[in-house]
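Hi R.,

As promised, here are both runs. First protein below:
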Amino acid sequence: MQQSATKYPELATAAKWLRAAWWLEIPLLLAFLVALWGAFVYAPTERVMGEVQRIFYFHVGSAAVAFFAFFIVFIAGILYLVRRNVVWDQLAATSVEVGVVFTTIVLTTGPIWAKPVWNTWFPWGDPRVMTTLVLWLIYMAYLILRSSLPEGDKKYKFCAVFGIIGFIDVPIVWMSIRWWRTIHPVVITSEGANLEPRMSQALLMAIAACMLSLAVLTLLRGAMRLNQLVVDRMAQDVIDSKRSVA
């Protein structure tokens, strides 16, 4: 086992990530219980939109997590190009998968909220909606590119560059409601959140719970990726050794 860990250092990293995920499971459960209490009990009902507005807390929380996940992709891509350590590539790929999941949640909860409030499921042409959809498509394209290329440094470099460039859309999504006319209100400003205090607190609870879920999902999926990478390398080593004997 020690020899395998020396030959395949990714195994040690995967084990550390699994242990970290295990320690975060109970805090994650507690955080989501608190967030649900904050969104559905503690926060007051919005006077105009009513109960459906409570989707807002997890809608925004998921968006914040998606942005942060793609920021991890951006940083991990740079670190891979600099250090050529496959762990950074696997972290980037994992963060894309998790980021796409949370972006899907954003694009799903948005219409549920929009229909009773704005009488439309999907407001085509709205800058925030369209830039978010583009963001989802960019990182779906990343996953398609990744699955179509053979393993190796060339694939990792292409994906790193793609992930770095794709991150450009994140600040565009953030600034879209400030640059263009949109049905989305500007809730978070440089002076704080334009919300009733208990709503702001409920939003922070939801964001914290979503951030913890990002950490746990990234650690678990990243460990799976690293273990699969090592298994593939071991299989290739066995094939190469048989060929050399033959």
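And here is the second one, sequence first, then its structure tokens:
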Amino acid sequence: MQKTFDKPMDAALLKKVPLFAEFGDEDLAAIASLVQTRRFAKHAVLVYEGDPGDALFIVVKGNVAVTRLSNEGKESILSILKEGDFFGEMGVLDASPRSATIKALGDVEVAILSRKDFLDLLGRSPHMSLSLVMTLSSRLRATNQAIQAASYQDIRTRLAALLLNLEKNFGERVEGGTRLTLRLTNQEMANMIGTTRETVNRMLNRFWDEKLIDMRTANVVIAEHDKLQAILH
């Protein structure tokens, strides 16, 4: 369930957001006065596909999934955003409806900046505009790679690629490998690589048998990065 209150943004938190890297303390304080933060509980929907694109959202704490439904009603997870990432920029830029549904993977806090204020900031900051373009380009590249992978790769390869991507974005070094700080269910992994929960479960257990990963704790540990990488080639 969504928590129903908003609160002002802490300017110190904005320093961690790459989109605002160019701004000094005084400007960050001014931006913070324009932003409200809102908290959402696990599994809550932050925005629905088709909603008006009237604000930019910045992930302050937690992780969110970008999802869409197929014509058959099957959910696909297009990407996962972490702290410092943002979403909703396309609807803000061209006043179009939201192109995806955003769901909280755990307890989440987001900062919300209105369309007018966001466009004003873009006009003031060439660096911010460049950062936005670079992020959009990176997301487009990742989407194209995912489409290509879904077309040509088998499930073993897709799952290996997903684990390596999670390692890159949510990994922390521990004894025996790299621990994934983000905990995804087998169904969520299946929604990301276009297969079933049962298939993901079987493949994860196979990776464990091969000692590529360790699943003795709630968080998967990547034990053999190079061997997982070799599956992609």
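A quick note on the second one: The first strand starts at residue 2 and ends at 8. Let me know what you think.

Best,
J.
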